[in-house]
Automatic annotation (TrEMBL), chain A:
The keyword Ribonucleoprotein does not apply. The keyword Nucleotide-binding applies. Residues 4-231 form the ABC transporter domain. CDD domains: ABC_BcrA_bacitracin_resist. This is ABC transporter ATP-binding protein. PROSITE patterns: ABC_TRANSPORTER_1, ABC_TRANSPORTER_2. Keywords: ATP-binding, Nucleotide-binding, Transport. InterPro entries: AAA+_ATPase (IPR003593), ABC_transporter-like_ATP-bd (IPR003439), ABC_transporter-like_CS (IPR017871), P-loop_NTPase (IPR027417). GO terms for molecular function: ATP binding.
UniProtKB/TrEMBL annotation, chain B:
It comes from the Bacteria. Pfam families: ABC2_membrane_4. The chain crosses the membrane at residues 16-35, 55-75, 96-124, 144-164, 171-191, 211-236. Keywords: Membrane, Transmembrane, Transmembrane helix. The keyword Transcription does not apply. It comes from Brevundimonas intermedia. The keyword Transmembrane applies. This is ABC transporter.
Amino acid sequence: MAAIETEGLTRIFGRRRVVDAVSMCVPDRAVYGFLGRNGAGKTTTMKMLIGLLRPTSGGARVCGVDVVRDRIGAARTIGALLEAHGFYVHLTGRENLDLTRRMLGLPATEIDRVLEVVDMLRDGGRRVSDYSLGMRQRLGIARAMLGAPPVLMLDEPTNGLDPDGIADMRRFLRALPERAGATVLLSSHLLGEIEQTASHVGIIHEGRLVLEGELARLKAELAPEIGLRVDDADRARAVLRGRDLTLVEDAEGLVARLRPGDDHDIVSAALNRDLIEAGVSVFAIAPRARSLEGIYRAASAIASHRQETV
Amino acid sequence: MLAVLSVEVRKLNRSLALLLAAAAPTLIAIFAFAMVLRSEKPSEWSMWIGSGTAIWAYFMLPMCVTALTALVAHMEHGPRSWDHLRALPVPRWTLYASKAICVIGLVVIMSAAVLAMTIGAVAVGGLVKPDAAAVGRLDLAAHAWVLAQMALAAVLMIALQFWTAIRFASFVPGLVLGIGGTFFAVVATSAKQGVFMPWQMPVNILATEAWRVQTALMLGGGLGLVVLAAAVIHLARREG
Protein backbone atom coordinates (compact mmCIF):
# COMPACT_ATOMS: atom_id res chain seq x y z
CA MET A 1 0.00 0.00 0.00
CA ALA A 2 1.24 3.48 -0.84
CA ALA A 3 1.79 5.76 2.15
CA ILE A 4 0.26 8.71 0.31
CA GLU A 5 -2.00 8.54 -2.69
CA THR A 6 -3.89 11.33 -4.41
CA GLU A 7 -6.31 11.12 -7.27
CA GLY A 8 -7.14 14.14 -9.39
CA LEU A 9 -6.46 16.40 -6.44
CA THR A 10 -7.48 19.91 -7.43
CA ARG A 11 -7.74 23.21 -5.63
CA ILE A 12 -9.04 26.40 -7.18
CA PHE A 13 -8.71 29.80 -5.50
CA GLY A 14 -11.06 32.23 -7.23
CA ARG A 15 -10.30 31.71 -10.93
CA ARG A 16 -6.83 30.31 -10.30
CA ARG A 17 -6.26 26.56 -10.48
CA VAL A 18 -3.40 26.31 -7.99
CA VAL A 19 -3.35 22.51 -7.88
CA ASP A 20 -4.58 20.83 -11.02
CA ALA A 21 -5.60 17.17 -11.00
CA VAL A 22 -2.55 15.93 -9.12
CA SER A 23 -2.39 12.15 -8.88
CA MET A 24 0.66 11.20 -6.89
CA CYS A 25 1.82 8.03 -5.20
CA VAL A 26 4.36 8.03 -2.41
CA PRO A 27 5.63 4.50 -1.66
CA ASP A 28 5.95 3.30 1.92
CA ARG A 29 9.31 4.20 3.60
CA ALA A 30 10.34 6.45 0.71
CA VAL A 31 11.86 9.90 0.96
CA TYR A 32 9.72 11.57 -1.68
CA GLY A 33 11.04 14.87 -2.95
CA PHE A 34 8.19 17.10 -4.02
CA LEU A 35 9.92 19.51 -6.34
CA GLY A 36 8.70 22.68 -7.98
CA ARG A 37 9.44 26.34 -8.18
CA ASN A 38 7.91 28.76 -5.65
CA GLY A 39 4.17 29.03 -6.27
CA ALA A 40 4.01 25.76 -8.24
CA GLY A 41 1.44 24.31 -5.81
CA LYS A 42 3.58 22.27 -3.40
CA THR A 43 2.40 23.89 -0.18
CA THR A 44 -1.24 23.92 -1.28
CA THR A 45 -1.01 20.18 -2.06
CA MET A 46 0.56 19.50 1.32
CA LYS A 47 -2.06 21.60 3.08
CA MET A 48 -4.77 19.49 1.45
CA LEU A 49 -3.02 16.30 2.57
CA ILE A 50 -2.78 17.63 6.13
CA GLY A 51 -6.43 18.68 6.06
CA LEU A 52 -5.83 22.42 6.34
CA LEU A 53 -7.44 23.05 2.95
CA ARG A 54 -10.35 21.23 1.35
CA PRO A 55 -9.84 20.00 -2.22
CA THR A 56 -12.10 21.56 -4.83
CA SER A 57 -12.23 18.12 -6.41
CA GLY A 58 -10.36 14.83 -6.28
CA GLY A 59 -9.23 13.00 -3.19
CA ALA A 60 -6.27 11.93 -1.13
CA ARG A 61 -5.50 9.04 1.19
CA VAL A 62 -2.74 8.85 3.76
CA CYS A 63 -2.01 5.31 4.99
CA GLY A 64 -5.30 4.35 3.41
CA VAL A 65 -7.32 6.98 5.31
CA ASP A 66 -9.33 9.50 3.30
CA VAL A 67 -8.14 12.96 4.38
CA VAL A 68 -11.46 14.65 3.58
CA ARG A 69 -13.87 12.09 5.04
CA ASP A 70 -11.78 11.32 8.12
CA ARG A 71 -9.52 14.31 8.80
CA ILE A 72 -8.75 13.31 12.37
CA GLY A 73 -8.02 9.70 11.43
CA ALA A 74 -5.68 10.84 8.65
CA ALA A 75 -4.04 13.43 10.93
CA ARG A 76 -3.16 10.64 13.39
CA THR A 77 -0.93 9.14 10.71
CA ILE A 78 0.82 12.41 9.81
CA GLY A 79 3.48 14.52 11.48
CA ALA A 80 3.96 17.84 9.73
CA LEU A 81 6.59 20.54 9.65
CA LEU A 82 4.99 23.60 8.15
CA GLU A 83 6.62 26.74 6.86
CA ALA A 84 5.40 28.67 9.90
CA HIS A 85 6.68 26.69 12.87
CA GLY A 86 4.25 28.23 15.34
CA PHE A 87 6.53 27.89 18.35
CA TYR A 88 5.92 29.87 21.53
CA VAL A 89 9.32 31.53 21.68
CA HIS A 90 9.10 32.44 25.38
CA LEU A 91 8.85 28.73 26.22
CA THR A 92 11.67 26.18 26.03
CA GLY A 93 11.88 23.61 23.25
CA ARG A 94 10.86 20.94 25.72
CA GLU A 95 7.83 22.96 26.90
CA ASN A 96 6.74 23.53 23.31
CA LEU A 97 6.89 19.80 22.65
CA ASP A 98 5.05 19.13 25.88
CA LEU A 99 2.05 21.25 24.81
CA THR A 100 1.63 19.20 21.64
CA ARG A 101 2.32 15.95 23.51
CA ARG A 102 -0.51 16.67 25.94
CA MET A 103 -2.93 17.44 23.14
CA LEU A 104 -2.03 14.14 21.50
CA GLY A 105 -2.38 12.27 24.80
CA LEU A 106 1.13 10.79 24.64
CA PRO A 107 3.37 9.73 27.55
CA ALA A 108 6.00 12.20 28.82
CA THR A 109 8.81 9.91 27.63
CA GLU A 110 7.97 10.85 24.05
CA ILE A 111 9.71 14.21 24.48
CA ASP A 112 13.11 12.68 25.22
CA ARG A 113 12.66 10.18 22.42
CA VAL A 114 12.04 12.77 19.72
CA LEU A 115 14.68 15.17 21.07
CA GLU A 116 17.18 12.36 20.84
CA VAL A 117 16.25 11.60 17.24
CA VAL A 118 16.98 15.21 16.24
CA ASP A 119 20.11 15.40 18.46
CA MET A 120 18.66 18.13 20.66
CA LEU A 121 18.53 16.49 24.07
CA ARG A 122 21.01 19.03 25.48
CA ASP A 123 19.22 22.06 24.01
CA GLY A 124 15.67 21.12 24.95
CA GLY A 125 15.79 23.22 28.12
CA ARG A 126 16.64 26.44 26.31
CA ARG A 127 14.05 29.00 25.25
CA VAL A 128 13.08 28.77 21.59
CA SER A 129 13.86 32.50 21.23
CA ASP A 130 17.54 31.56 21.72
CA TYR A 131 17.48 28.86 19.02
CA SER A 132 19.09 29.25 15.60
CA LEU A 133 16.87 28.71 12.57
CA GLY A 134 18.40 25.25 12.09
CA MET A 135 17.55 24.28 15.66
CA ARG A 136 13.99 25.50 15.19
CA GLN A 137 13.71 23.37 12.05
CA ARG A 138 14.96 20.33 13.95
CA LEU A 139 12.62 21.07 16.84
CA GLY A 140 9.80 21.29 14.30
CA ILE A 141 10.75 17.86 12.98
CA ALA A 142 10.91 16.55 16.56
CA ARG A 143 7.40 17.85 17.15
CA ALA A 144 6.22 16.25 13.90
CA MET A 145 7.60 12.92 15.13
CA LEU A 146 5.67 12.94 18.43
CA GLY A 147 3.69 9.73 18.57
CA ALA A 148 5.82 8.20 15.78
CA PRO A 149 3.41 8.88 12.90
CA PRO A 150 4.10 6.68 9.85
CA VAL A 151 4.17 9.69 7.51
CA LEU A 152 6.18 12.89 7.90
CA MET A 153 5.40 15.90 5.71
CA LEU A 154 8.11 18.52 5.71
CA ASP A 155 7.51 21.78 3.88
CA GLU A 156 10.81 23.33 2.75
CA PRO A 157 12.80 22.07 5.76
CA THR A 158 16.05 23.74 4.65
CA ASN A 159 14.51 27.18 4.15
CA GLY A 160 16.70 29.86 5.66
CA LEU A 161 19.47 27.49 6.75
CA ASP A 162 23.16 28.28 6.22
CA PRO A 163 25.28 25.87 4.11
CA ASP A 164 26.36 23.83 7.14
CA GLY A 165 22.78 23.68 8.37
CA ILE A 166 21.60 22.51 4.94
CA ALA A 167 24.25 19.76 4.86
CA ASP A 168 23.25 18.64 8.39
CA MET A 169 19.60 18.64 7.45
CA ARG A 170 20.24 16.57 4.31
CA ARG A 171 22.11 13.93 6.29
CA PHE A 172 19.35 13.92 8.86
CA LEU A 173 16.54 13.60 6.31
CA ARG A 174 18.30 10.79 4.43
CA ALA A 175 18.53 8.81 7.66
CA LEU A 176 14.95 9.53 8.75
CA PRO A 177 13.19 6.48 7.28
CA GLU A 178 15.70 4.25 9.05
CA ARG A 179 15.74 6.20 12.33
CA ALA A 180 12.03 6.88 12.58
CA GLY A 181 10.63 4.14 10.36
CA ALA A 182 8.62 6.75 8.50
CA THR A 183 7.75 7.76 4.97
CA VAL A 184 8.91 11.30 4.29
CA LEU A 185 7.24 13.74 1.91
CA LEU A 186 9.67 16.58 1.48
CA SER A 187 8.80 19.69 -0.49
CA SER A 188 11.50 21.91 -1.90
CA HIS A 189 12.32 24.24 -4.75
CA LEU A 190 16.01 23.29 -4.49
CA LEU A 191 17.14 20.63 -6.96
CA GLY A 192 20.32 19.77 -5.06
CA GLU A 193 18.43 19.23 -1.85
CA ILE A 194 16.02 16.75 -3.41
CA GLU A 195 18.74 15.04 -5.45
CA GLN A 196 20.87 14.39 -2.39
CA THR A 197 18.05 13.41 -0.10
CA ALA A 198 15.19 11.76 -1.94
CA SER A 199 14.70 8.22 -3.16
CA HIS A 200 11.64 9.23 -5.18
CA VAL A 201 10.69 12.47 -6.83
CA GLY A 202 7.55 14.22 -8.01
CA ILE A 203 7.86 17.38 -10.08
CA ILE A 204 5.01 19.87 -9.94
CA HIS A 205 4.83 22.61 -12.53
CA GLU A 206 2.12 25.27 -12.45
CA GLY A 207 -0.12 23.06 -10.35
CA ARG A 208 0.36 19.89 -12.41
CA LEU A 209 2.38 16.85 -11.49
CA VAL A 210 4.48 16.53 -14.63
CA LEU A 211 6.78 13.70 -13.59
CA GLU A 212 6.96 11.16 -10.82
CA GLY A 213 9.04 8.10 -10.06
CA GLU A 214 12.05 6.56 -8.43
CA LEU A 215 14.95 8.97 -8.80
CA ALA A 216 17.52 6.35 -9.80
CA ARG A 217 15.18 4.99 -12.49
CA LEU A 218 14.38 8.45 -13.86
CA LYS A 219 18.07 9.23 -14.07
CA ALA A 220 18.77 5.96 -15.86
CA GLU A 221 16.07 6.78 -18.41
CA LEU A 222 17.56 10.20 -19.07
CA ALA A 223 19.34 10.55 -22.43
CA PRO A 224 23.12 10.27 -21.93
CA GLU A 225 25.14 13.47 -22.30
CA ILE A 226 28.76 14.21 -23.18
CA GLY A 227 30.44 17.42 -22.08
CA LEU A 228 32.94 19.01 -24.48
CA ARG A 229 35.51 21.78 -23.95
CA VAL A 230 36.99 22.91 -27.24
CA ASP A 231 38.88 25.94 -28.58
CA ASP A 232 36.25 26.86 -31.18
CA ALA A 233 32.67 26.02 -30.32
CA ASP A 234 31.25 27.24 -33.65
CA ARG A 235 33.56 25.01 -35.68
CA ALA A 236 32.86 22.07 -33.39
CA ARG A 237 29.15 22.60 -33.91
CA ALA A 238 29.61 22.61 -37.67
CA VAL A 239 31.72 19.43 -37.52
CA LEU A 240 29.20 17.53 -35.39
CA ARG A 241 26.10 18.76 -37.24
CA GLY A 242 25.81 15.56 -39.22
CA ARG A 243 25.75 13.28 -36.19
CA ASP A 244 22.56 11.93 -34.61
CA LEU A 245 22.67 14.01 -31.44
CA THR A 246 21.55 17.36 -30.04
CA LEU A 247 24.15 20.01 -29.28
CA VAL A 248 23.50 22.64 -26.63
CA GLU A 249 25.78 25.06 -24.84
CA ASP A 250 25.83 25.76 -21.10
CA ALA A 251 28.17 27.52 -18.66
CA GLU A 252 30.67 24.65 -18.79
CA GLY A 253 30.86 24.36 -22.57
CA LEU A 254 29.17 22.30 -25.26
CA VAL A 255 26.89 19.43 -24.32
CA ALA A 256 26.13 16.63 -26.77
CA ARG A 257 22.81 15.02 -25.82
CA LEU A 258 22.75 11.48 -27.20
CA ARG A 259 19.84 9.26 -28.11
CA PRO A 260 18.60 6.87 -25.38
CA GLY A 261 20.61 3.63 -25.65
CA ASP A 262 23.69 5.24 -27.22
CA ASP A 263 26.98 4.11 -25.69
CA HIS A 264 29.01 6.93 -24.10
CA ASP A 265 32.43 5.46 -24.90
CA ILE A 266 31.78 4.70 -28.53
CA VAL A 267 30.19 8.10 -29.21
CA SER A 268 32.91 9.94 -27.23
CA ALA A 269 35.65 8.29 -29.28
CA ALA A 270 33.85 9.10 -32.53
CA LEU A 271 33.27 12.74 -31.59
CA ASN A 272 36.87 13.15 -30.47
CA ARG A 273 38.17 11.70 -33.76
CA ASP A 274 35.90 13.93 -35.88
CA LEU A 275 36.92 17.07 -34.01
CA ILE A 276 40.66 16.34 -34.08
CA GLU A 277 40.51 15.51 -37.80
CA ALA A 278 38.77 18.82 -38.42
CA GLY A 279 41.50 20.69 -36.52
CA VAL A 280 39.43 21.54 -33.47
CA SER A 281 41.45 21.37 -30.24
CA VAL A 282 39.68 19.25 -27.64
CA PHE A 283 40.57 20.18 -24.04
CA ALA A 284 38.15 17.83 -22.36
CA ILE A 285 35.56 15.26 -23.35
CA ALA A 286 33.67 13.28 -20.70
CA PRO A 287 30.24 11.84 -19.96
CA ARG A 288 28.03 14.12 -17.94
CA ALA A 289 26.47 12.69 -14.78
CA ARG A 290 22.74 12.21 -15.21
CA SER A 291 21.29 14.77 -12.84
CA LEU A 292 17.92 15.69 -11.40
CA GLU A 293 18.41 19.07 -13.00
CA GLY A 294 18.33 17.40 -16.41
CA ILE A 295 15.15 15.56 -15.47
CA TYR A 296 13.58 18.72 -14.10
CA ARG A 297 14.45 20.84 -17.13
CA ALA A 298 13.14 18.21 -19.53
CA ALA A 299 9.90 17.72 -17.57
CA SER A 300 9.28 21.46 -17.18
CA ALA A 301 10.02 22.11 -20.85
CA ILE A 302 7.57 19.41 -21.94
CA ALA A 303 4.90 20.79 -19.58
CA SER A 304 5.40 24.35 -20.81
CA HIS A 305 5.30 23.23 -24.45
CA ARG A 306 2.03 21.32 -23.83
CA GLN A 307 0.45 24.38 -22.26
CA GLU A 308 1.51 26.58 -25.16
CA THR A 309 0.05 24.21 -27.72
CA VAL A 310 -3.28 23.75 -25.87
CA MET B 1 -11.53 18.57 25.26
CA LEU B 2 -9.95 18.41 28.74
CA ALA B 3 -6.48 17.87 27.28
CA VAL B 4 -6.87 20.88 24.97
CA LEU B 5 -8.25 22.97 27.83
CA SER B 6 -5.35 22.04 30.11
CA VAL B 7 -2.88 23.05 27.38
CA GLU B 8 -4.67 26.38 27.01
CA VAL B 9 -4.45 27.00 30.75
CA ARG B 10 -0.73 26.18 30.66
CA LYS B 11 -0.18 28.64 27.85
CA LEU B 12 -2.09 31.31 29.77
CA ASN B 13 -0.06 30.59 32.91
CA ARG B 14 3.11 31.37 31.02
CA SER B 15 1.70 34.53 29.43
CA LEU B 16 0.88 37.95 30.89
CA ALA B 17 -2.78 36.99 31.31
CA LEU B 18 -2.51 36.71 35.08
CA LEU B 19 -0.91 40.16 35.30
CA LEU B 20 -3.80 41.51 33.27
CA ALA B 21 -6.29 39.65 35.45
CA ALA B 22 -4.74 41.16 38.58
CA ALA B 23 -4.38 44.70 37.21
CA ALA B 24 -8.04 45.63 36.82
CA PRO B 25 -9.26 44.58 40.31
CA THR B 26 -6.15 46.15 41.82
CA LEU B 27 -6.85 49.49 40.16
CA ILE B 28 -10.44 49.44 41.39
CA ALA B 29 -9.21 48.57 44.90
CA ILE B 30 -6.64 51.40 44.85
CA PHE B 31 -9.38 53.80 43.77
CA ALA B 32 -11.66 52.60 46.58
CA PHE B 33 -8.83 52.95 49.13
CA ALA B 34 -8.14 56.52 47.97
CA MET B 35 -11.83 57.39 48.19
CA VAL B 36 -12.02 56.10 51.78
CA LEU B 37 -9.04 58.26 52.74
CA ARG B 38 -10.66 61.24 51.01
CA SER B 39 -13.96 60.70 52.77
CA GLU B 40 -14.84 62.83 55.83
CA LYS B 41 -17.65 60.66 57.15
CA PRO B 42 -18.41 56.95 57.21
CA SER B 43 -20.40 55.34 54.36
CA GLU B 44 -22.26 52.07 54.07
CA TRP B 45 -20.45 48.95 52.85
CA SER B 46 -23.04 48.67 50.10
CA MET B 47 -22.06 52.13 48.79
CA TRP B 48 -18.37 51.21 48.56
CA ILE B 49 -18.92 47.80 46.99
CA GLY B 50 -21.63 49.16 44.68
CA SER B 51 -19.26 51.87 43.49
CA GLY B 52 -16.47 49.38 42.73
CA THR B 53 -18.90 47.03 41.01
CA ALA B 54 -20.22 49.83 38.81
CA ILE B 55 -16.71 50.87 37.69
CA TRP B 56 -16.03 47.23 36.91
CA ALA B 57 -19.25 46.83 34.92
CA TYR B 58 -19.20 49.89 32.68
CA PHE B 59 -15.48 50.40 32.10
CA MET B 60 -13.04 47.83 33.42
CA LEU B 61 -14.96 44.74 32.31
CA PRO B 62 -15.35 45.79 28.63
CA MET B 63 -11.70 46.90 28.51
CA CYS B 64 -10.48 43.69 30.14
CA VAL B 65 -12.53 41.52 27.78
CA THR B 66 -11.04 43.41 24.84
CA ALA B 67 -7.52 42.88 26.19
CA LEU B 68 -8.04 39.24 27.20
CA THR B 69 -9.54 38.18 23.89
CA ALA B 70 -6.70 39.95 22.05
CA LEU B 71 -4.20 38.16 24.29
CA VAL B 72 -5.56 34.64 23.80
CA ALA B 73 -5.90 35.20 20.05
CA HIS B 74 -2.39 36.60 19.66
CA MET B 75 -0.86 33.70 21.52
CA GLU B 76 -1.53 31.88 18.21
CA HIS B 77 -1.64 34.73 15.65
CA GLY B 78 1.77 36.00 16.81
CA PRO B 79 3.83 32.83 16.24
CA ARG B 80 1.48 31.72 13.40
CA SER B 81 0.65 28.52 15.21
CA TRP B 82 -2.90 28.06 13.91
CA ASP B 83 -1.81 25.76 11.08
CA HIS B 84 0.06 23.53 13.52
CA LEU B 85 -2.89 23.41 15.93
CA ARG B 86 -5.48 22.86 13.22
CA ALA B 87 -3.44 20.03 11.70
CA LEU B 88 -3.46 18.05 14.96
CA PRO B 89 -5.78 15.06 15.33
CA VAL B 90 -8.15 16.81 17.71
CA PRO B 91 -11.60 18.23 16.88
CA ARG B 92 -10.99 21.83 15.82
CA TRP B 93 -13.92 23.21 17.76
CA THR B 94 -12.15 22.21 20.99
CA LEU B 95 -9.26 24.57 20.16
CA TYR B 96 -11.61 27.54 20.05
CA ALA B 97 -14.00 26.43 22.78
CA SER B 98 -11.12 25.99 25.24
CA LYS B 99 -9.92 29.51 24.53
CA ALA B 100 -13.42 30.92 25.04
CA ILE B 101 -13.77 28.98 28.31
CA CYS B 102 -10.46 30.42 29.50
CA VAL B 103 -11.61 33.97 28.78
CA ILE B 104 -14.91 33.44 30.62
CA GLY B 105 -13.06 31.75 33.46
CA LEU B 106 -10.70 34.69 33.80
CA VAL B 107 -13.63 37.12 33.80
CA VAL B 108 -15.22 35.14 36.64
CA ILE B 109 -11.92 35.12 38.57
CA MET B 110 -11.51 38.86 38.00
CA SER B 111 -15.08 39.48 39.17
CA ALA B 112 -14.34 37.63 42.40
CA ALA B 113 -11.09 39.56 42.74
CA VAL B 114 -12.94 42.89 42.30
CA LEU B 115 -15.18 41.99 45.24
CA ALA B 116 -12.40 40.62 47.46
CA MET B 117 -9.93 43.40 46.75
CA THR B 118 -12.49 46.18 47.10
CA ILE B 119 -13.55 44.81 50.49
CA GLY B 120 -9.89 44.57 51.48
CA ALA B 121 -9.10 48.11 50.31
CA VAL B 122 -12.10 49.63 52.11
CA ALA B 123 -11.23 47.69 55.28
CA VAL B 124 -7.60 48.85 55.20
CA GLY B 125 -8.77 52.39 54.45
CA GLY B 126 -10.99 52.22 57.54
CA LEU B 127 -8.03 51.16 59.65
CA VAL B 128 -5.91 54.04 58.34
CA LYS B 129 -8.75 56.56 58.75
CA PRO B 130 -11.21 55.24 61.36
CA ASP B 131 -13.54 58.25 60.88
CA ALA B 132 -14.29 57.07 57.35
CA ALA B 133 -14.48 53.33 58.07
CA ALA B 134 -17.33 51.53 56.32
CA VAL B 135 -20.45 50.98 58.39
CA GLY B 136 -23.54 48.76 58.14
CA ARG B 137 -23.83 45.14 57.14
CA LEU B 138 -21.56 43.63 54.49
CA ASP B 139 -23.90 41.43 52.46
CA LEU B 140 -21.27 39.36 50.70
CA ALA B 141 -23.72 36.96 49.05
CA ALA B 142 -25.78 39.77 47.51
CA HIS B 143 -22.69 41.49 46.08
CA ALA B 144 -21.33 38.21 44.76
CA TRP B 145 -24.70 37.51 43.12
CA VAL B 146 -24.64 40.89 41.36
CA LEU B 147 -21.13 40.24 40.05
CA ALA B 148 -22.12 36.76 38.89
CA GLN B 149 -25.06 38.23 36.98
CA MET B 150 -22.74 40.80 35.43
CA ALA B 151 -20.41 38.04 34.26
CA LEU B 152 -23.37 36.24 32.70
CA ALA B 153 -24.61 39.43 31.03
CA ALA B 154 -21.11 39.92 29.61
CA VAL B 155 -21.14 36.68 27.60
CA LEU B 156 -22.53 38.33 24.44
CA MET B 157 -19.81 40.98 24.60
CA ILE B 158 -17.19 38.27 25.22
CA ALA B 159 -18.50 36.25 22.25
CA LEU B 160 -18.32 39.22 19.86
CA GLN B 161 -14.85 40.28 21.03
CA PHE B 162 -13.61 36.69 20.93
CA TRP B 163 -14.96 36.10 17.44
CA THR B 164 -13.34 39.26 16.11
CA ALA B 165 -10.00 38.69 17.85
CA ILE B 166 -9.63 35.12 16.55
CA ARG B 167 -11.03 35.82 13.08
CA PHE B 168 -8.57 38.61 12.25
CA ALA B 169 -4.82 38.09 12.55
CA SER B 170 -4.40 41.82 13.24
CA PHE B 171 -5.36 42.97 16.73
CA VAL B 172 -6.73 46.26 15.34
CA PRO B 173 -10.33 45.14 14.51
CA GLY B 174 -10.78 43.68 18.01
CA LEU B 175 -9.37 46.78 19.66
CA VAL B 176 -11.51 49.15 17.58
CA LEU B 177 -14.62 47.12 18.50
CA GLY B 178 -13.70 47.00 22.18
CA ILE B 179 -12.72 50.65 22.49
CA GLY B 180 -15.85 51.70 20.60
CA GLY B 181 -18.09 49.55 22.79
CA THR B 182 -16.44 50.78 25.99
CA PHE B 183 -16.71 54.38 24.82
CA PHE B 184 -20.49 54.11 24.54
CA ALA B 185 -20.68 52.16 27.80
CA VAL B 186 -18.93 55.08 29.55
CA VAL B 187 -20.64 58.06 27.89
CA ALA B 188 -24.14 56.54 27.87
CA THR B 189 -24.04 54.39 31.00
CA SER B 190 -27.57 55.17 32.13
CA ALA B 191 -29.22 55.27 28.70
CA LYS B 192 -32.24 52.95 28.64
CA GLN B 193 -31.38 51.79 25.10
CA GLY B 194 -27.98 50.72 26.40
CA VAL B 195 -29.47 47.45 27.63
CA PHE B 196 -29.58 46.34 23.99
CA MET B 197 -25.90 47.07 23.50
CA PRO B 198 -23.59 44.16 24.43
CA TRP B 199 -20.94 46.37 26.11
CA GLN B 200 -23.58 47.98 28.35
CA MET B 201 -25.41 44.83 29.37
CA PRO B 202 -23.26 44.15 32.48
CA VAL B 203 -23.89 47.61 33.95
CA ASN B 204 -27.62 47.19 33.40
CA ILE B 205 -27.58 44.51 36.11
CA LEU B 206 -27.39 47.49 38.50
CA ALA B 207 -30.55 49.09 37.00
CA THR B 208 -33.50 49.64 39.31
CA GLU B 209 -36.05 48.58 36.66
CA ALA B 210 -36.46 44.80 36.69
CA TRP B 211 -37.04 44.60 32.90
CA ARG B 212 -33.57 46.00 32.24
CA VAL B 213 -31.93 43.42 34.48
CA GLN B 214 -33.96 40.63 32.87
CA THR B 215 -33.20 41.89 29.36
CA ALA B 216 -29.47 42.16 30.11
CA LEU B 217 -29.45 38.60 31.44
CA MET B 218 -31.54 37.17 28.62
CA LEU B 219 -29.69 38.90 25.80
CA GLY B 220 -26.25 39.00 27.36
CA GLY B 221 -26.34 35.50 28.76
CA GLY B 222 -28.80 33.56 26.59
CA LEU B 223 -28.07 35.13 23.22
CA GLY B 224 -24.43 35.38 24.25
CA LEU B 225 -24.10 31.61 24.60
CA VAL B 226 -25.77 31.12 21.20
CA VAL B 227 -23.40 33.63 19.56
CA LEU B 228 -20.42 32.04 21.30
CA ALA B 229 -21.42 28.61 19.98
CA ALA B 230 -21.86 30.10 16.48
CA ALA B 231 -18.41 31.70 16.74
CA VAL B 232 -16.77 28.41 17.72
CA ILE B 233 -18.51 26.52 14.90
CA HIS B 234 -17.65 29.19 12.33
CA LEU B 235 -14.00 29.42 13.37
CA ALA B 236 -13.63 25.63 13.38
CA ARG B 237 -15.15 25.25 9.92
CA ARG B 238 -13.36 28.03 8.08
CA GLU B 239 -10.08 27.40 6.29
CA GLY B 240 -6.82 28.91 7.43
